[in-house]
UniProtKB/TrEMBL annotation:
Source superkingdom: Bacteria
Pfam families named in the record: ECH_1 (PF00378)
Gene3D superfamilies given in the database record: 2-enoyl-CoA Hydratase, Chain A, domain 1 (3.90.226.10), Lyase 2-enoyl-coa Hydratase, Chain A, domain 2 (1.10.12.10)
Species: Albidovulum sediminicola
UniProt entry tagged with the keyword ATP-binding: no
Name the record gives this protein: Enoyl-CoA hydratase domain-containing protein 3, mitochondrial
Family of this protein: Belongs to the enoyl-CoA hydratase/isomerase family.
Amino acid sequence: MTDTILLRDDRDGIATLTLNTPGSLNALSDAMLAALKGTFAALAEDRSVRVVILKGAGKAFCAGHDLKEMQAGRQAADKGRAYFADLFARCAEVMQMIPALPQPVIAEVHGIATAAGCQLVASCDMAVAAEGTRFGVNGVNIGLFCSTPMVALTRNVPRKVAFEMLTTGQFIDAARAAEVGLVNHVVSHDALAAETRALAETVAGKLTAAVKIGKRAFYDQIEMTRAEAYDHAAAVMVENMLWRDTEEGISAFLEKRKPDWS
């Protein structure tokens, strides 16, 4: 089932993952969360992959949690309390695996990204969206405040923008998403795959070890005070500067040639 609902295609150091349940708008079902968790765990150990692209099949990126499964969970004696607690814990684990991956993860977004689907975009390191894509944390429209998607959203967009989205349930378009920092680039639908691939190839062409250490430091320093962040970042740069490949990269730049990285 994992191979069916989540496709993986590796080419030239770039792994493309496709959420592949278009009939449910690629909802984050129990099976999809399990597939993502297993694939992310495998990618964390895969040194051949330098960048990850995450996309959705069909007419949407991801519509969030599977509401039919959630309603079915209510049939338990506790009215679903244990199931819901487990579901949101599993989803949070998957979302947190993305920034923890050594490889940068780029969301390739089209159609809609709603609720936990918007959370998935916000959890990725970068995002490219097609014109016309709509983003929302719209659970409030059905009486469910998007509290867990809020965690990732508020770490991407300004506070007041996030609060308005969460309390009104209104969608923002791709242009507004770029304006507030939820996505990096907005392109035509026809150019979406090519532009996302081009961004991935640019990152994949850098020294992999430097991107890896930099990504880890990026997320570590965000949680620190300014003084702690500077101390931590300085220590990371010292370690980075002592690498043979960094010495070679600087020498190549000064000598106006391509670096011979190992």
